[in-house]
Protein backbone atom coordinates (compact mmCIF):
# COMPACT_ATOMS: atom_id res chain seq x y z
CA UNK A 1 0.00 0.00 0.00
CA UNK A 2 1.40 3.37 -0.95
CA UNK A 3 1.97 6.34 1.33
CA UNK A 4 -0.86 8.17 -0.39
CA UNK A 5 -3.25 5.35 0.46
CA UNK A 6 -2.25 5.49 4.13
CA UNK A 7 -2.83 9.22 4.24
CA UNK A 8 -6.27 8.82 2.67
CA UNK A 9 -7.22 6.07 5.13
CA UNK A 10 -5.98 8.10 8.10
CA UNK A 11 -7.98 11.12 6.97
CA UNK A 12 -11.08 9.01 6.53
CA UNK A 13 -10.67 7.51 10.00
CA UNK A 14 -10.26 10.96 11.53
CA UNK A 15 -13.38 12.20 9.73
CA UNK A 16 -15.39 9.22 11.00
CA UNK A 17 -14.12 9.75 14.54
CA UNK A 18 -14.98 13.47 14.59
CA UNK A 19 -18.39 12.80 13.10
CA UNK A 20 -19.08 10.11 15.66
CA UNK A 21 -18.01 12.41 18.47
CA UNK A 22 -20.35 15.19 17.46
CA UNK A 23 -23.15 12.72 16.92
CA UNK A 24 -22.70 11.36 20.44
CA UNK A 25 -22.48 14.90 21.86
CA UNK A 26 -25.57 15.99 19.96
CA UNK A 27 -27.47 13.00 21.25
CA UNK A 28 -26.16 13.35 24.79
CA UNK A 29 -27.34 17.00 25.03
CA UNK A 30 -31.03 16.31 24.51
CA UNK A 31 -30.81 13.24 26.68
CA UNK A 32 -29.27 15.28 29.49
CA UNK A 33 -31.96 18.00 29.13
CA UNK A 34 -34.65 15.33 29.32
CA UNK A 35 -33.07 13.98 32.49
CA UNK A 36 -33.03 17.49 33.99
CA UNK A 37 -36.70 18.01 33.11
CA UNK A 38 -37.38 14.73 34.88
CA UNK A 39 -35.57 16.03 37.97
CA UNK A 40 -37.65 19.22 37.90
CA UNK A 41 -40.90 17.25 37.58
CA UNK A 42 -39.86 15.28 40.68
CA UNK A 43 -39.14 18.46 42.65
CA UNK A 44 -35.36 18.03 42.68
CA UNK A 45 -34.74 21.66 41.77
CA UNK A 46 -31.32 22.04 43.41
CA UNK A 47 -29.93 19.06 41.50
CA UNK A 48 -31.38 20.47 38.28
CA UNK A 49 -29.75 23.86 38.96
CA UNK A 50 -26.30 22.26 39.36
CA UNK A 51 -26.57 20.35 36.06
CA UNK A 52 -28.01 23.32 34.15
CA UNK A 53 -25.19 25.57 35.31
CA UNK A 54 -22.68 23.00 33.99
CA UNK A 55 -24.38 23.03 30.60
CA UNK A 56 -24.39 26.83 30.49
CA UNK A 57 -20.69 26.97 31.32
CA UNK A 58 -20.11 25.38 27.91
CA UNK A 59 -23.16 26.78 26.07
CA UNK A 60 -24.15 30.10 27.62
CA UNK A 61 -26.78 30.74 24.92
CA UNK A 62 -28.59 27.43 25.33
CA UNK A 63 -32.22 28.63 25.41
CA UNK A 64 -33.67 25.46 26.88
CA UNK A 65 -31.09 25.39 29.67
CA UNK A 66 -31.63 29.09 30.45
CA UNK A 67 -35.39 28.60 30.57
CA UNK A 68 -35.18 25.53 32.79
CA UNK A 69 -32.70 27.27 35.09
CA UNK A 70 -35.13 30.17 35.45
CA UNK A 71 -37.96 27.74 36.11
CA UNK A 72 -35.94 25.84 38.75
CA UNK A 73 -35.08 29.06 40.59
CA UNK A 74 -38.72 30.15 40.40
CA UNK A 75 -39.86 26.85 41.90
CA UNK A 76 -37.50 27.35 44.86
CA UNK A 77 -38.75 30.91 45.43
CA UNK A 78 -35.49 32.48 44.24
CA UNK A 79 -37.27 35.01 42.03
CA UNK A 80 -34.24 37.26 41.51
CA UNK A 81 -32.21 34.50 39.82
CA UNK A 82 -35.30 33.32 37.96
CA UNK A 83 -35.78 36.83 36.54
CA UNK A 84 -32.09 36.96 35.58
CA UNK A 85 -32.31 33.76 33.54
CA UNK A 86 -35.65 34.55 31.92
CA UNK A 87 -34.20 37.88 30.81
CA UNK A 88 -31.16 36.07 29.40
CA UNK A 89 -33.62 33.98 27.39
CA UNK A 90 -35.26 37.10 26.01
CA UNK A 91 -31.86 38.58 25.16
CA UNK A 92 -30.76 35.45 23.26
CA UNK A 93 -34.23 35.43 21.64
CA UNK A 94 -33.90 32.06 19.89
CA UNK A 95 -37.50 31.15 20.63
CA UNK A 96 -39.01 27.90 19.40
CA UNK A 97 -42.04 25.70 20.08
CA UNK A 98 -39.92 24.14 22.81
CA UNK A 99 -39.20 27.55 24.40
CA UNK A 100 -41.97 29.94 23.24
CA UNK A 101 -41.57 33.66 23.89
CA UNK A 102 -45.02 33.99 25.45
CA UNK A 103 -44.25 31.30 28.02
CA UNK A 104 -40.93 32.91 28.98
CA UNK A 105 -42.51 36.35 29.38
CA UNK A 106 -45.41 34.89 31.38
CA UNK A 107 -42.98 33.27 33.81
CA UNK A 108 -40.97 36.48 34.00
CA UNK A 109 -44.10 38.54 34.72
CA UNK A 110 -45.15 36.12 37.47
CA UNK A 111 -41.73 36.37 39.14
CA UNK A 112 -41.74 40.17 38.98
CA UNK A 113 -45.22 40.17 40.49
CA UNK A 114 -44.06 37.92 43.33
CA UNK A 115 -41.18 40.34 43.99
CA UNK A 116 -43.58 43.30 44.19
CA UNK A 117 -42.20 44.85 41.01
CA UNK A 118 -45.63 45.72 39.66
CA UNK A 119 -44.52 48.18 36.99
CA UNK A 120 -42.19 45.76 35.17
CA UNK A 121 -44.64 42.91 35.63
CA UNK A 122 -47.33 45.04 34.01
CA UNK A 123 -44.98 45.86 31.11
CA UNK A 124 -44.45 42.16 30.44
CA UNK A 125 -48.19 41.49 30.47
CA UNK A 126 -48.68 44.40 28.06
CA UNK A 127 -46.24 42.73 25.66
CA UNK A 128 -48.16 39.49 26.12
CA UNK A 129 -51.40 41.20 25.02
CA UNK A 130 -49.60 41.85 21.72
CA UNK A 131 -48.16 38.34 21.44
CA UNK A 132 -51.45 36.67 22.40
CA UNK A 133 -54.23 39.14 21.55
CA UNK A 134 -56.93 36.52 22.13
CA UNK A 135 -55.74 35.45 25.59
CA UNK A 136 -58.09 37.04 28.14
CA UNK A 137 -55.75 36.19 31.04
CA UNK A 138 -53.15 38.73 29.92
CA UNK A 139 -55.73 41.54 29.77
CA UNK A 140 -57.01 40.51 33.18
CA UNK A 141 -53.53 40.66 34.71
CA UNK A 142 -52.79 44.07 33.14
CA UNK A 143 -56.13 45.39 34.37
CA UNK A 144 -55.48 44.16 37.90
CA UNK A 145 -52.05 45.82 37.93
CA UNK A 146 -53.45 49.13 36.68
CA UNK A 147 -56.12 48.80 39.36
CA UNK A 148 -53.47 48.22 42.03
CA UNK A 149 -51.71 51.38 40.87
CA UNK A 150 -54.89 53.44 41.20
CA UNK A 151 -55.25 53.93 37.43
CA UNK A 152 -58.88 52.86 37.29
CA UNK A 153 -59.74 54.14 33.76
CA UNK A 154 -56.92 52.04 32.26
CA UNK A 155 -57.90 49.11 34.45
CA UNK A 156 -61.46 49.33 33.15
CA UNK A 157 -60.21 49.31 29.53
CA UNK A 158 -58.23 46.07 29.91
CA UNK A 159 -60.69 44.33 32.23
CA UNK A 160 -63.52 45.09 29.80
CA UNK A 161 -61.50 43.42 27.04
CA UNK A 162 -60.91 40.41 29.30
CA UNK A 163 -64.68 40.01 29.81
CA UNK A 164 -65.24 40.27 26.04
CA UNK A 165 -62.68 37.56 25.32
CA UNK A 166 -64.01 35.31 28.10
CA UNK A 167 -67.49 36.31 29.31
CA UNK A 168 -67.48 33.35 31.69
CA UNK A 169 -64.45 34.49 33.72
CA UNK A 170 -65.95 35.64 37.02
CA UNK A 171 -62.73 37.17 38.35
CA UNK A 172 -62.57 39.59 35.40
CA UNK A 173 -66.13 40.74 36.07
CA UNK A 174 -65.38 41.12 39.78
CA UNK A 175 -62.26 43.21 39.15
CA UNK A 176 -64.12 45.31 36.58
CA UNK A 177 -66.90 45.96 39.08
CA UNK A 178 -64.40 47.04 41.74
CA UNK A 179 -62.71 49.41 39.27
CA UNK A 180 -66.07 50.97 38.39
CA UNK A 181 -66.86 51.28 42.11
CA UNK A 182 -63.59 53.15 42.70
CA UNK A 183 -64.59 55.54 39.89
CA UNK A 184 -68.04 56.04 41.47
CA UNK A 185 -69.65 54.41 38.42
CA UNK A 186 -72.13 52.65 40.66
CA UNK A 187 -74.58 51.43 38.02
CA UNK A 188 -71.77 49.90 35.93
CA UNK A 189 -70.24 48.45 39.10
CA UNK A 190 -73.56 46.88 40.06
CA UNK A 191 -73.96 45.23 36.64
CA UNK A 192 -70.41 43.80 36.63
CA UNK A 193 -70.52 42.61 40.22
CA UNK A 194 -73.90 40.94 39.79
CA UNK A 195 -72.46 39.04 36.81
CA UNK A 196 -69.42 38.08 38.89
CA UNK A 197 -71.54 36.74 41.75
CA UNK A 198 -73.72 34.77 39.33
CA UNK A 199 -70.67 33.19 37.69
CA UNK A 200 -68.83 32.61 40.97
CA UNK A 201 -71.31 32.50 43.88
CA UNK A 202 -68.47 31.67 46.28
CA UNK A 203 -66.63 34.95 45.56
CA UNK A 204 -67.24 36.69 48.89
CA UNK A 205 -65.19 39.72 47.86
CA UNK A 206 -67.51 40.31 44.90
CA UNK A 207 -70.54 40.05 47.22
CA UNK A 208 -68.86 42.56 49.57
CA UNK A 209 -68.27 45.11 46.80
CA UNK A 210 -71.79 44.53 45.51
CA UNK A 211 -73.06 45.39 49.00
CA UNK A 212 -70.96 48.56 49.05
CA UNK A 213 -72.25 49.52 45.60
CA UNK A 214 -75.91 48.92 46.44
CA UNK A 215 -75.50 51.05 49.56
CA UNK A 216 -74.41 54.00 47.41
CA UNK A 217 -77.34 53.31 45.09
CA UNK A 218 -79.57 53.57 48.19
CA UNK A 219 -80.73 49.96 47.87
CA UNK A 220 -80.32 49.16 51.56
CA UNK A 221 -82.18 45.84 51.47
CA UNK A 222 -80.15 44.63 48.50
CA UNK A 223 -76.95 45.78 50.18
CA UNK A 224 -77.71 43.83 53.35
CA UNK A 225 -78.47 40.67 51.36
CA UNK A 226 -75.17 40.91 49.47
CA UNK A 227 -73.26 41.60 52.67
CA UNK A 228 -74.83 38.57 54.35
CA UNK A 229 -73.22 36.39 51.65
CA UNK A 230 -69.86 38.10 52.18
CA UNK A 231 -70.02 37.26 55.91
CA UNK A 232 -68.90 33.70 55.10
CA UNK A 233 -65.34 34.99 54.70
CA UNK A 234 -63.76 35.38 58.15
CA UNK A 235 -61.07 37.70 56.79
CA UNK A 236 -63.71 40.03 55.35
CA UNK A 237 -66.09 39.86 58.31
CA UNK A 238 -64.91 43.02 60.17
CA UNK A 239 -65.25 45.14 57.01
CA UNK A 240 -68.60 43.53 56.24
CA UNK A 241 -69.88 44.35 59.74
CA UNK A 242 -68.63 47.91 59.34
CA UNK A 243 -70.55 48.28 56.08
CA UNK A 244 -73.67 46.61 57.50
CA UNK A 245 -73.56 49.12 60.33
CA UNK A 246 -73.35 52.01 57.86
CA UNK A 247 -76.32 50.65 55.90
CA UNK A 248 -78.35 50.38 59.11
CA UNK A 249 -77.40 53.97 59.95
CA UNK A 250 -78.69 54.99 56.50
CA UNK A 251 -81.95 53.31 57.50
CA UNK A 252 -81.86 55.19 60.82
CA UNK A 253 -81.72 51.86 62.65
CA UNK A 254 -79.10 53.24 65.01
CA UNK A 255 -79.45 50.66 67.78
CA UNK A 256 -78.90 47.78 65.34
CA UNK A 257 -76.00 49.68 63.78
CA UNK A 258 -74.27 49.96 67.16
CA UNK A 259 -74.68 46.20 67.61
CA UNK A 260 -73.02 45.51 64.22
CA UNK A 261 -70.07 47.78 65.01
CA UNK A 262 -69.63 46.13 68.40
CA UNK A 263 -69.55 42.69 66.76
CA UNK A 264 -66.80 43.93 64.49
CA UNK A 265 -64.79 45.30 67.42
CA UNK A 266 -64.56 41.79 68.89
CA UNK A 267 -62.99 40.45 65.68
CA UNK A 268 -60.18 42.92 65.05
CA UNK A 269 -56.82 43.49 66.67
CA UNK A 270 -56.83 46.05 69.47
CA UNK A 271 -55.12 49.34 68.57
CA UNK A 272 -55.54 48.66 64.84
CA UNK A 273 -57.03 51.34 62.61
CA UNK A 274 -60.12 49.19 62.04
CA UNK A 275 -60.54 48.87 65.82
CA UNK A 276 -60.63 52.67 66.15
CA UNK A 277 -62.92 53.08 63.14
CA UNK A 278 -65.46 50.62 64.51
CA UNK A 279 -65.47 52.32 67.92
CA UNK A 280 -65.86 55.72 66.24
CA UNK A 281 -68.82 54.58 64.14
CA UNK A 282 -70.41 52.89 67.17
CA UNK A 283 -70.17 56.24 68.96
CA UNK A 284 -71.65 58.06 65.95
CA UNK A 285 -74.61 55.68 65.77
CA UNK A 286 -75.18 55.90 69.53
CA UNK A 287 -75.02 59.70 69.35
CA UNK A 288 -77.68 59.75 66.63
CA UNK A 289 -79.75 57.43 68.81
CA UNK A 290 -79.27 59.94 71.66
CA UNK A 291 -77.63 57.20 73.72
CA UNK A 292 -74.94 59.50 75.05
CA UNK A 293 -73.78 57.03 77.68
CA UNK A 294 -72.74 54.52 74.98
CA UNK A 295 -71.35 57.21 72.68
CA UNK A 296 -69.18 58.66 75.43
CA UNK A 297 -67.88 55.21 76.40
CA UNK A 298 -66.60 54.68 72.86
CA UNK A 299 -65.16 58.21 72.58
CA UNK A 300 -63.35 57.85 75.91
CA UNK A 301 -61.81 54.54 74.85
CA UNK A 302 -60.64 56.03 71.54
CA UNK A 303 -59.25 59.10 73.33
CA UNK A 304 -57.27 56.90 75.74
CA UNK A 305 -55.62 55.17 72.78
CA UNK A 306 -55.26 58.05 70.32
CA UNK A 307 -56.07 61.48 71.72
CA UNK A 308 -56.01 63.23 68.34
CA UNK A 309 -58.27 60.75 66.53
CA UNK A 310 -60.68 62.68 64.29
CA UNK A 311 -63.00 64.94 66.34
CA UNK A 312 -63.14 62.74 69.45
CA UNK A 313 -61.52 65.34 71.74
CA UNK A 314 -64.03 68.00 70.70
CA UNK A 315 -66.91 65.55 71.16
CA UNK A 316 -65.82 64.81 74.71
CA UNK A 317 -65.46 68.52 75.40
CA UNK A 318 -68.86 69.22 73.88
CA UNK A 319 -70.52 66.60 76.04
CA UNK A 320 -68.48 67.13 79.20
CA UNK A 321 -71.65 67.63 81.25
CA UNK A 322 -73.14 64.42 79.90
CA UNK A 323 -70.10 62.47 81.11
CA UNK A 324 -70.76 63.33 84.76
CA UNK A 325 -74.48 64.06 84.99
CA UNK A 326 -76.93 61.15 84.80
CA UNK A 327 -79.90 63.50 84.50
CA UNK A 328 -78.58 64.76 81.15
CA UNK A 329 -78.12 61.21 79.90
CA UNK A 330 -81.66 60.34 80.99
CA UNK A 331 -83.01 63.41 79.22
CA UNK A 332 -81.41 62.33 75.95
CA UNK A 333 -82.89 58.83 75.98
CA UNK A 334 -86.26 59.76 77.50
CA UNK A 335 -89.39 58.59 75.69
CA UNK A 336 -91.50 61.09 73.81
CA UNK A 337 -93.95 61.47 76.70
CA UNK A 338 -91.11 61.88 79.23
CA UNK A 339 -89.38 64.38 76.96
CA UNK A 340 -92.54 66.49 76.73
CA UNK A 341 -93.05 66.39 80.50
CA UNK A 342 -89.47 67.59 81.13
CA UNK A 343 -89.81 70.43 78.60
CA UNK A 344 -93.11 71.54 80.14
CA UNK A 345 -91.34 71.69 83.51
CA UNK A 346 -88.47 73.73 82.03
CA UNK A 347 -90.96 76.22 80.56
CA UNK A 348 -92.77 76.47 83.88
CA UNK A 349 -89.51 76.97 85.81
CA UNK A 350 -88.59 79.83 83.47
CA UNK A 351 -91.80 81.65 84.43
CA UNK A 352 -93.85 80.99 81.33
CA UNK A 353 -97.31 79.56 80.85
CA UNK A 354 -97.97 77.33 77.86
CA UNK A 355 -100.50 78.43 75.26
CA UNK A 356 -99.70 75.94 72.49
CA UNK A 357 -97.18 73.10 72.32
CA UNK A 358 -96.16 70.71 69.53
CA UNK A 359 -93.54 67.96 69.31
CA UNK A 360 -91.45 67.50 66.19
CA UNK A 361 -90.23 63.93 65.51
CA UNK A 362 -89.41 63.17 69.14
CA UNK A 363 -86.34 65.42 69.01
CA UNK A 364 -87.74 68.94 69.36
CA UNK A 365 -90.61 70.82 70.97
CA UNK A 366 -91.96 74.21 69.96
CA UNK A 367 -94.31 76.12 72.22
CA UNK A 368 -95.99 79.50 72.19
CA UNK A 369 -95.76 80.69 75.77
CA UNK A 370 -96.78 83.83 77.59
CA UNK A 371 -95.35 85.82 80.45
CA UNK A 372 -97.30 88.17 82.72
CA UNK A 373 -95.81 90.86 84.93
CA UNK A 374 -98.56 93.14 86.12
CA UNK A 375 -96.20 95.53 87.89
CA UNK A 376 -93.63 96.04 85.13
CA UNK A 377 -95.85 95.63 82.06
CA UNK A 378 -99.06 97.23 83.22
CA UNK A 379 -101.01 94.01 82.90
CA UNK A 380 -100.02 93.59 79.23
CA UNK A 381 -99.46 89.98 78.11
CA UNK A 382 -96.23 89.27 76.22
CA UNK A 383 -95.77 86.19 74.08
CA UNK A 384 -92.59 84.25 73.53
CA UNK A 385 -91.76 81.44 71.16
CA UNK A 386 -89.95 78.62 72.93
CA UNK A 387 -88.00 75.95 71.05
CA UNK A 388 -85.94 73.12 72.53
CA UNK A 389 -84.16 70.43 70.52
CA UNK A 390 -82.26 67.40 71.72
CA UNK A 391 -80.89 66.88 68.23
CA UNK A 392 -77.11 66.99 68.52
CA UNK A 393 -76.55 68.67 65.17
CA UNK A 394 -75.06 72.19 65.44
CA UNK A 395 -77.62 75.00 65.22
CA UNK A 396 -77.06 76.98 62.02
CA UNK A 397 -77.77 80.60 61.13
CA UNK A 398 -80.57 79.48 58.79
CA UNK A 399 -82.32 77.72 61.67
CA UNK A 400 -82.28 80.88 63.75
CA UNK A 401 -83.49 82.96 60.80
CA UNK A 402 -86.41 80.57 60.30
CA UNK A 403 -87.10 80.66 64.05
CA UNK A 404 -87.18 84.47 63.92
CA UNK A 405 -89.67 84.41 61.02
CA UNK A 406 -91.89 82.01 62.98
CA UNK A 407 -91.76 84.43 65.94
CA UNK A 408 -93.13 87.18 63.70
CA UNK A 409 -95.86 84.91 62.32
CA UNK A 410 -96.93 83.85 65.81
CA UNK A 411 -96.84 87.38 67.22
CA UNK A 412 -94.06 86.56 69.70
CA UNK A 413 -92.05 89.50 71.01
CA UNK A 414 -89.34 87.26 72.40
CA UNK A 415 -87.69 83.97 71.48
CA UNK A 416 -85.99 81.26 73.53
CA UNK A 417 -84.00 78.68 71.57
CA UNK A 418 -82.38 75.76 73.45
CA UNK A 419 -80.20 72.94 72.17
CA UNK A 420 -78.10 70.16 73.64
CA UNK A 421 -75.61 70.68 70.81
CA UNK A 422 -73.47 73.60 69.69
CA UNK A 423 -74.51 76.87 68.07
CA UNK A 424 -72.41 78.09 65.16
CA UNK A 425 -70.91 81.62 65.46
CA UNK A 426 -73.03 83.03 62.61
CA UNK A 427 -76.21 81.95 64.42
CA UNK A 428 -75.01 83.59 67.65
CA UNK A 429 -74.26 86.81 65.77
CA UNK A 430 -77.70 86.84 64.12
CA UNK A 431 -79.51 86.24 67.42
CA UNK A 432 -77.41 88.90 69.16
CA UNK A 433 -79.17 91.68 67.23
CA UNK A 434 -82.65 90.33 67.88
CA UNK A 435 -84.78 89.45 70.93
CA UNK A 436 -83.66 85.83 70.90
CA UNK A 437 -82.02 84.02 73.82
CA UNK A 438 -79.76 81.13 72.82
CA UNK A 439 -78.86 78.26 75.13
CA UNK A 440 -76.27 75.74 73.95
CA UNK A 441 -75.26 72.47 75.67
CA UNK A 442 -73.52 74.24 78.54
CA UNK A 443 -76.40 76.69 79.04
CA UNK A 444 -79.23 74.17 79.00
CA UNK A 445 -77.73 71.87 81.65
CA UNK A 446 -79.01 73.76 84.72
CA UNK A 447 -82.53 73.94 83.28
CA UNK A 448 -82.61 70.18 82.63
CA UNK A 449 -81.32 69.42 86.12
CA UNK A 450 -83.95 71.72 87.64
CA UNK A 451 -86.74 70.09 85.66
CA UNK A 452 -85.65 66.56 86.57
CA UNK A 453 -84.88 67.12 90.25
Low-confidence stretches: 17-30
Termini separation: 141 Å
Q: Kindly state the mean pLDDT as a whole number?
A: 90
| CATH architecture group name of the domain at 330-452 | 3-Layer(aba) Sandwich
Percentage of residues in DSSP E strands: 5-15%
Shape: elongated
The biggest sheet amounts to: 5 strands, mixed
What is the succession of H and E elements?
Answer: HHHHHHHHHHHHHHHHHHHHEEHEHEHEH
Under the CATH scheme, which class of the domain at 330-452? Alpha Beta
- The total of helices stands at 24
Strand order in the largest sheet: 1-2-3-4-5
Structural class comes to alpha/beta
Number of E-state strands:
5
Rg computed from alpha carbons, rounded to a whole number of angstroms: 38 Å
CATH topology of the domain at 330-452: Trna Endonuclease, Chain: A, domain 1
What percent of residues adopt helix (DSSP H or I)? Answer: 55-70%
Describe this structure in words.
By secondary structure, the protein is α/β, with parallel strands linked by helices. Among the domains are: 30-133, Serine Threonine Protein Phosphatase 5, Tetratricopeptide repeat; 330-452, Trna Endonuclease, Chain: A, domain 1 (3-Layer(aba) Sandwich), CATH 3.40.1350.10. 69% of the residues lie in helices and 8% in strands. The protein contains 24 helices and five strands. The chain has a five-stranded mixed sheet with strand order 1-2-3-4-5, with helices on both faces. Helix 1 (3-41) packs antiparallel against helix 2 and helix 20 crosses helix 24. The longest helix has 39 residues, at 3-41.
Amino acid sequence: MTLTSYIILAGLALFIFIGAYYFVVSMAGPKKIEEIENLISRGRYKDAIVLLNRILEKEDRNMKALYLLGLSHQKTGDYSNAVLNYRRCIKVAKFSPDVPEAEVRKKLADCLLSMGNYTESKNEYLILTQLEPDNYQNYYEVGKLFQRGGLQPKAIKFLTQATRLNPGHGDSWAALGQAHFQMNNYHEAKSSLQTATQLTPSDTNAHYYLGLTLRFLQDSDGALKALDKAMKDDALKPRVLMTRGLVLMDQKSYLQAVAEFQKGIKLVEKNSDMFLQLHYMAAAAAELNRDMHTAIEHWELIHSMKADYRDVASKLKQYSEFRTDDSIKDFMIASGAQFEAIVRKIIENMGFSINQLSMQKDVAIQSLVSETDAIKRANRRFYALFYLQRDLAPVTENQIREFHETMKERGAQRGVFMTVGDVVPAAIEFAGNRPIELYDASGIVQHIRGAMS
